[in-house]
User: What shape does this take?
Amino acid sequence: MPLQRRVPKFGFKNINRVEYKAINITTIEQLAADKNLDKVTVADLIQAGFVRKNQLVKILGVGTLTKKVDVEANAFSKKAEEIIAAAGGTINKL
Assistant: This one.
């Protein structure tokens, strides 16, 4: 029997998958404090070295915000939206 029939098939690669680079609220808080920012954008994350130029960014809700920060990203988790809104900041989806 040929080799391709003896070896089992496995796996599936979804061609429609959208992959995001995950950034936590703690990272946003630290970046805003270090650079004294009121608005954190994807360009700020690229400049700080957290994200590459063509990556999509998703903000996750790990951590807390102590000051009002306006955040701009491609996607947000529900918990991250709640944390940013509770601190008085705004959310801008790209």
